[in-house]
Amino acid sequence: MASVAGVARVDDLVIATADGRSLPFRVEMALDDETRSRGLMFRQSLAPDGGMLFLWSRPVGIVMWMKNTPIPLDMLFVDQAGVIIRIARRTVPYSLDNIPAGAPSLGVLEVAGGTADRLGIRAGDRMVHPAFH
Predict the structure, then answer these.
(1) What pLDDT sits at residue 7?
(2) What is the C-alpha radius of gyration for the chain, rounded to an integer number of angstroms?
(3) For 20, which DSSP code?
(4) I want to staple 127 with a disulfide (CB 3.0 to 4.6 A). Which of 47, 50, 76, 82 is the partner?
(5) CATH top-level class for 10-128?
(6) Predicted pLDDT at 2
């Protein structure tokens, strides 16, 4: 995955599904305000197993948008235990509409639009990564 200014590192993350599957991803980490603000803006593509994990230091009312983002994304909002609490599927490129988590969340994983449906990822599945307890 190409390096992007402001992205501290790329980590492995696994989504453990309710039916026992382990789905591996390589994710760019968005850990500070600058990186979270830029996110995946201006990206023309995203690897099928790639993404960006946005994390905050504590659960907050996360609201995302698609400003300057030319590709559709799936946004997987996650609580502090790593449980996916909401999935916004195939978000609209360039939209300025708010996309809220719906409940306090520790983070959001953005992946290519259609990934959640393609892999059968659902709310209640769990992200396995050191950020989650």
Answers:
(1) 46
(2) 13
(3) S
(4) 82
(5) mainly beta
(6) 40
The CA–CA distances, whole Å, from 125 to 19, 47, 86 equal 9, 21, 10
For 26, other C-beta atoms within 10 Å of its C-beta total: 13
Q: Provide the β-strand partners of residue 99.
A: 64
Q: Which two tokens stand for residue 57?
A: 């230091």
Distance CA 50, CA 18 (A): 21
Structure tokens at 129: 């990564």
Average pLDDT for the chain:
93
d(CA 30, CA 113): 19
Beta bridge partners of 83: 126
The rounded distance, in Å, linking the Cα atoms of 81 and 88 is 19
Beta-strand ranges (E) seen in 17-82 are 22-30, 50-60, 63-64, 73-78
pLDDT, average across residues 123-130: 97
As given in the structure block, the two tokens for residue 38 are 């830029």
Per-residue burial over 77-105, b if 16 or more Cβ lie within 10 Å, else e, is: bbbeebbbbbbbeebeeeeeeebebeeeb
